[in-house]
Amino acid sequence: KKAKMIIDKAYKIAEIDERVYGSFIEHLGRAVYGGLYEPGHPEADEQGFRKDVIDLVQQLNVPIVRYPGGNMVSAYNWEDGIGPKEDRPKRLELAWRVIETNEVGTNEFVDWAKKAGSEVMMAINLGTRGIDAARNIIEYTNHPSGTYWSDLRVKHGYKEPHKIKTWCLGNEMDGPWQVGQKTAYEYGRLASEAGKAMRLVDPDIELVSCGSSNTDMPTFPDWEAETLTHTYDVVDYISLHQYFGNRDDDSQNFIANGMELERFISTVTSVADYIKAKKRSKKTLMLSFDEWNVWYHSNDADKEIEPWTVAPPQLEDHYNFEDALLVGSILITFLKHADRVKMACMAQLVNVIAPIMTENMGAAWKQTIYYPYMHASVYGRGVSLKAIVDSPKFDTKDYTDVEYLDTAVVYNEEEEELTVFALNRHIEDDLHVTINVSGFEDYEIKEHIVLEHDDLKAVNTATHESVTPHRNGNAVLQDGFIEAKLSKASWHVVRLR
Ligand code: AHR
Fold it and tell me: Keyword Hydrolase on this protein (predicted)?
C-alpha cells in the first residue's frame, strides 16, 4: 500500500498549547500512596516523594497535572489535606470505597508538581459541596495574605501563594456513579456561581466547565448545550473525557478508535460554537480533554478489591503494544485539533491506568504507552501544520474509511525543526509513504524513531522492556521528498532539521 503527503510551513493549524501533554493524579489506588509518595523507599526525598518516579515524569516533560480527582473530588473536603499531618482525619473515600489518610494534600501536591516541573490543574468538589468551599480553597491557594484562609496557608509554611491558574469546576457531574450527580441545569447554575465567586477572589484564573463523561452518555451532547448556556460567560474551556478498551479483541477496530475521538471533538466544538452564536459572544470556547486513555485491562481485578483498605492496587492496567499505538493516534488527533484542544491529560500518570508503574519498595518502570506520550510531549512543541494526506483506507466494525496513515506534523520555528508523527494503523499491511517537504530547503533527517513489535499483545514488566523504541527507522530524504516504509501497526517519529 502507498500513501502520499505534502507538508508546508504555510499550512498552519495553530500554535500548540503545551498543556495538551498534561496528565492526571487522583487520590485513587496506588497513584499517590505507593506511587508518588512512599516514605521509607530508598528513593524517597525528605517529603517522602519518590525521586525515581519524579525522574520518569520529568523525562515525559509533563507541563500540567490535574489533581486530586476524578470521581474522588466529588466528596472530598480539601481542608482535610492541609495543616499538620498528625491532625489530618482519615476518611471513608466514597468514590473508590477506600480509606483516605490525607497524608498528602494540596500543599504537598504543589511541592511535588514543582519538583516534577509541572503546573497544577486543580479540580473542586461540586458534588457534595459548592460555592463556599470553592471560594475558600482559592483564597487559601491564591490570595497573598491578610485574610483567614491565606494566613492559614502562611501558617502552614507556604508564605507565597501557589497561584494555581487552571481550575476544573467539578468532575463528570452527569454520571450516576458520581457522588452528588447533577442534572445539566443544576450543574450549570452551580458551576457558573462557583466560577463567578472564584474569579472574584482571583481574576487571573482559567476555568473548565464539566462536559459529558463520554460519548455514550444518554445526555450527550444536550448536557454540553444546557450547561454551557449557564457557564459560557464565566469559563474558558469545556472538558471531554474518553477511555477506550479492546473488549472484543478486535485489534483493527481498536486501533481505529481515533475516529471516535475526531467525532467527539467535532461535536463538542460545534455545540460550543452554537452557544457562542446564541449568546452573540465574542469569546471562542476551547476544549480541555482532561481525561483520556485506554482503560479496561484491570476491570475484572478491580471487582475483587476489599473495600475500606488504604491504597489498594486499583485500575492497574497492564498495557500492551496495541494500546501504545492507540495512544499515539490519540495524541496525533489532539495535534490535528490544536486550534481548539488546548489542554489534555493522559489519565493517569502513576500506577492507575498509567504510563509509569512502581513496585512497592521496589523499581519504577515504563509501560508501553510511555513512549508515544514521551515522543509527542518532547518533540511535539511548536506549530501544528496541516498535512495534505492521500492515504488508502479500510473499514472496521465501527468505522468506515479509516486512513492507513494517521499523521500530525509539528514545526518548531525557534529550533528550525520539523517533526512528523505517523502511525500505520493497518495491522496486516505495510505502508510506503512519500512526503513532499520541498518547502524545507536544506533540512536533513536527524532521526527516525520507531515503535514496532511482532506481537500486538506484547507488554513491558518491571524487569523486562519488550516494547521499546529504536532509532533505526528507514526514512530517507532526497530532492525534497522523504521516502519511508512503515511496517504494519507501527508508530513513527521522523525529525528533520
Ligand atoms: O480516571 C479514572 C476515573 O475515570 C476518574 O476518577 C473519573 O473522572 C473517570 O470516570
Answer: yes
Give yes or no for residue 212 CB within 6 A of ligand 1: no
For 180-204, the pLDDT digits (tens) are 999 999 999 999 999 999 999 999 9
Which of 244, 291, 353 most suits a substitution to test ligand 1, by most atoms within 8 Å of the C-beta?
291
Of residues 294, 233, 311, the one with CA closest to residue 37: 311
Q: pTM of whole model > 0.95?
A: yes
Helices (H) and strands (E) in the chain, counts: 11, 25
Percentages (nearest 5) of helix, strand, coil residues in the chain? 30, 25, 45
Cα of 295 from ligand 1 centre, angstroms? 10
Provide the 10 A C-beta neighbour count for residue 335.
22
How does DSSP classify residue 434? E
Residue of 241, 244, 302, 346 best suited for mutating to test ligand 1, as the one with most atoms within 8 Å of CB: 241
The residue type found at 273 is D
ipTM of the complex: 0.99
Q: How confident is the model at residue 392 (pLDDT cuts 50, 70, 90)?
A: very high
| Helices 258-278 & 321-336 angle (0-180, nearest 10) | 30
How many angstroms separate the CA atoms of 236 and 254, rounded?
32
What is the DSSP track for 15-56?
EPPGGGGEEE--SSTTSTBTTTB-TTSTTB-TTSBBHHHHHH
CA of 493 to the centre of ligand 1 (A): 30
Q: Rounded to whole angstroms, how far apart are CA atoms 325 and 451?
A: 9
Residue 447 corresponds to which amino acid? E
Centre of ligand 1 to C-alpha 352, Å, is 10
Above pLDDT 70, what percent of the chain? 100
Among the listed residues 416, 437, 446, the one whose alpha carbon sits nearest the alpha carbon of residue 479: 437
Distance CA 450, CA 433 (A): 14
Using CA atoms in the order 208, 245, 385, 376, what is the torsion angle rounded to 10 degrees? 90
Write out the three cell numbers for 179. 457522588
Q: Is the CB of 314 under 6 A from ligand 1?
A: no
Per-residue model confidence as pLDDT tens digits over 324-357? 999 999 999 999 999 999 999 999 999 999 999 9
For residue 172, indicate whether it is catalytic.
yes
Ligand 1 centroid to 226 CA: how many Å?
22
Which residue puts its alpha carbon closest to atom 8 of ligand 1? 70
